């Protein structure tokens, strides 16, 4: 019964996302809005507990969700043969761009996090810290 509630929550939030996206003419697709609604709804234990059961089931059978994609590729092999190199180039480039943007954002966030700690050190403490960090260990 808990699984039925969980799938009901998922379908309800997905449908609400579609209605909101189309009704307000958002630039986001309905499933994305539905996922944002799910993120907010997961704060309530009644939603969290029932969706957890469905999520665990779906994760156990995740490989089955790739079957339609595989069938789609097999039915469109002619398109893949015609545009395969272009598709591969786009996939590789978009992956590299995504990794680079993620790394730059992470670096910027880490810099903001580390900067206050470094600013808190006085010049004497900083030089003492640097001297001790650069000193050779005593092996005697």
Detailed description of the structure:
This protein is mostly helical. It has two domains: 1-62; 72-127. Helices cover 83% and strands 0% of the residues. The chain has six helices and no strands. Helix 1 crosses helix 2 (30-41) and helix 1 packs across helix 3 (45-60). The protein is extended, with a radius of gyration of 25 Å. The model has no long low-confidence stretch (mean pLDDT 85).
Distance between the termini: 69 Å
Low-confidence stretches: none
What is the domain tally? 2
Q: Quick one: overall form?
A: extended
The structure class reads mainly alpha
Succession of helices and strands: HHHHHH
**Biggest sheet: strands, sense, closure?**
none
Radius of gyration: 25 Å
Number of helices: 6
- Assembly type of the chains comes to single chain
Average pLDDT, rounded to a whole number, is 85
Helix content: over 70%
Strand content range: under 5%
Count of DSSP strands: 0
What is the compact description of this entry?
The protein is mainly α and 140 residues long.
Write the layout of secondary structure elements.
Layout: H1 2-24, H2 30-41, H3 45-60, H4 67-75, H5 77-120, H6 123-134
Protein traits:
mainly alpha, 6 helices, 140 residues, extended, 2 domains
